[in-house]
Amino acid sequence: MSVRLRHIAYASLAFFACLAALPTTIGSQASAETPIETFSSLPTFEGAKLSPDGNSIAYSVDFKGRRTIVYQKLDGSDRGLVPPPKDAEIDRFYWANDDVLLIAMSSYARRVEFTRETLNRRIISLDIHTRETTWLGEPQNRRMVTDGGKERERASQMERITDFLPDDPDHILLALDFNLNAQDEIYEVNVRSGKRKMVKSERHSIYRWYTDQKSEIRLGIGVKEGIASQDIFTIFKKEDGTWVNLDKTDWAERFDFLGFSKDPNIIYVTGQTEHGTLGLFTIQVESGEIVEQLFSHPKFDAGSVVYHPVTGYVAGVSYTDDHKRIKYFDKDLDLIKRSLDKVLPDTNNYIAGRAKERRAYLIFTGSASVPGAYYLFDRDKGQLGLITATRPDYDITKSASTKVVDIPARDGSTIPAYLTIPHGLKTPSNMPAVVLPHGGPHARDDADWDYLAQFLANRGYLVIKPNFRGSTGYGVSFKTSGYKQWGGLMQDDITDATKWLISEGYADPERICIAGGSYGGYAALMGAIKEQGLYKCSVSINGVTDIVALKASEGRYVGGEVGHEKIGLEGVKDREVSPFVRAKEINVPTLIIASADDRVVPAKQSEKMYKRLKKLGKKPRYIEMQGGDHFLLTAEARQTVLAEIETFLANHIGK
Question: Is residue 508 part of a domain?
């Protein structure tokens, strides 16, 4: 079967008449320096999803600086807006059926059962016709608790969709934990009324249940000695209905479970390949024997499985080389992907969704210079039409270029990195530069469009984003070599990337600043401490400053006991790698920014660091924002950060 893409209609589809005030082409700015709001704003259009019948669409927008859901018919009718509650954020949304949206929200709140604020997740259903909402996890005759002298029903803390029940569009399977012990119970829930019945009670040590392709609960995964334990416990339901303990097989220790195949006795997992990277395998559940290796890359790790939008079967696997990619196993989807790549050769393209009842596909495209755009592909008509760009006000012709570079580390290893070069420059020379290590630390950067790097480049700075040892995506040993290396090998790799900029003649050695958020903020402070004279300023955004204090707290950032083991800091070494303890060694201007509502790295960490530096006569600048969370989720928080960084850099390494 061939796919004909007759033409690209570069105009908004009729159902986007409501967005008429926005440009319908990608890019409209004429000036070289783009307004700060263009970078700090949230995407105008993101996460689009088609309803099963293909007649409606839902997507998120930037509404008053926060992520808000919009839904409407393709013809422009029945449009509605779902703003987040004041104290919660919208995480995800899905179509349960043609009439009902499921919206996942999260918030932090103090519960009477705990001594501190905890993360709570809620699943809300919305009938797009009646506009009535229903809390699907609402307490129903559960255990009572006393709060402020009044009794009320105990609510579940974490609500998760376990299965969408594709053969029963009026119901889903929902995981609830009313007992607040991290051991889920599974309920079949009516998405309209919220009525539910338990289909699987909690079981000691099991914290997550999984269904097979027929929506039957088949696998339970937990830990033997508390949620922080690494001793994994797995049970499996055989086809005769009996449950077996899989302790005698070690696949749960060697592989990460992703999902069931068509055969419920065979599952998809990721595990280490002959290259040392993570690959995709199928294995026998009971024996752990490998059935087939489906994906292996000599340099990059497999990500998650990709499901067919209609059949629900595994159709491919995601991975990231320098951009996010999908390798399709399904021949039909692969044919569509290759056809799209011929028509849109300058972007990375993938299928973001499809209607179940007609051959209408949502296509997402993006690149290092393109923040993103959505297209609607009508396969029957062979037409591909631009819906809108995710940031219609952004002029992609003014984007900075991003170059993939491999940097030699001092021990002979190679550090992959991304060099963002201001627009119009082919080869940078003696430029002011910003070293931008990522957070995590066990995460990674890629070459896709990045609002912070693009903003800095737009203001005339060269930007380097190194994937230091400890980063994910490059194989098991590359990641694990960063364990226990806060202030050590990971920091050395960042230093080597900085010195490489100088040795190549790209950066002016007298105008280099180091900046980052979360772990990147920690690295920015430690860089100023360990490498005297290398950096002329330092910027920490929601950064870790006091390892000793953080480990003594809840350990939410580093992952409890497991995180402590990976960091591997004991005794005096904690103090050696804590910027707070070594604050007197910081001899460059320092900008410290914190979010007051950061529940990952408490703002107190940043405030203590500021006061310590001030007491030492270092004259730091401290900004505490009232919103934005750890991840700068609001446009207001992002604008504050960008404005402060712009002024700070101009004062210390600017032209």
Answer: yes
Indicate the burial class of 557 (C-beta count within 10 angstroms; 0-12, 13-18, 19 or more): buried
Instruction: Classify residue 292 as exposed, middle or buried by CB count within 10 Å of its CB (0-12, 13-18, 19+).
Output: exposed
Within a domain: 334: no
Question: Domain of 633: which CATH number?
Answer: 3.40.50.1820
Q: What is the bridge-based pairing of β-strands 537-541 and 507-517?
A: parallel
The pair of structure tokens assigned to 111 is 């519960």
| CA distances to 24, 159, 270, 356, 638 from 171, in Å | 38, 15, 30, 17, 39
From CA 225, how far away is CA 184, in angstroms rounded? 16
- Identify the pLDDT of residue 128: 93
Kindly state the tokens that stand for 251: 């696949």
Number of alpha helices (DSSP H) and beta strands (DSSP E) in the chain: 12, 38
- Burial of 125: CB neighbours in 10 Å, binned 0-12, 13-18, 19+: buried
Residue 298: per-residue pLDDT: 96
pLDDT for the residue 583: 97
Closest CA to 305 of 313, 297, 237: 313
**Largest pairwise CA distance in the chain:** 73
The tokens describing 547, both together, are 């390892």
pLDDT of residue 318: 96
Q: Of 520, 518, 372, 378, which Cα lies nearest the Cα of 454?
A: 372
What's the total number of domains in the chain? 1
DSSP conformation class of 97: S
pTM of the predicted structure, to 2 decimals: 0.88
- What 3-state class would DSSP assign to 39? helix
| C-beta separation of 493 from 531 below 8 A | no
* Three-class secondary structure of residue 343 per DSSP: helix
Q: From residue 1, how far is each of 260, 338, 375, 493, 545 by CA, in Å?
A: 29, 13, 22, 50, 58
Q: What is the DSSP string of 288-299?
A: --EEEEEE--SS
| CB 24, CB 375: distance < 8 Å | no
- The predicted-structure confidence for 120-178, as pLDDT tens digits, reads as follows 889 999 999 999 999 998 887 655 555 555 545 667 778 999 999 999 999 999 999 87
The count of other CB atoms within 10 Å of the CB of residue 313 is 15
Structural domain boundaries, residue 628: 400-652
Bin 641: left if φ > 0, else alpha if -120 < ψ < 50, else beta: alpha
Does some domain include residue 490? yes
Residue 216 lies in a domain: no
Low-confidence ranges of the chain (pLDDT < 70): 1-32, 110-116, 141-154, 225-231, 248, 553-572, 655
Measured between alpha carbons, how far is residue 471 from residues 170, 418, 494 in Å? 42, 14, 12
Per residue, what are the HEC states of 517-573?
A: ECHHHHHHHHHHHHCCCCCCEEEEECCCCCHHHHHHCCCCCCCHHHHHHHHCCCCHH
* The predicted structure's pLDDT at residue 88: 86
Q: What is the DSSP letter of 349?
A: E
Give the Cα separation of 81 and 69 in Å (integer): 6
What sign does the CA torsion over 443, 446, 452, 453 have?
positive
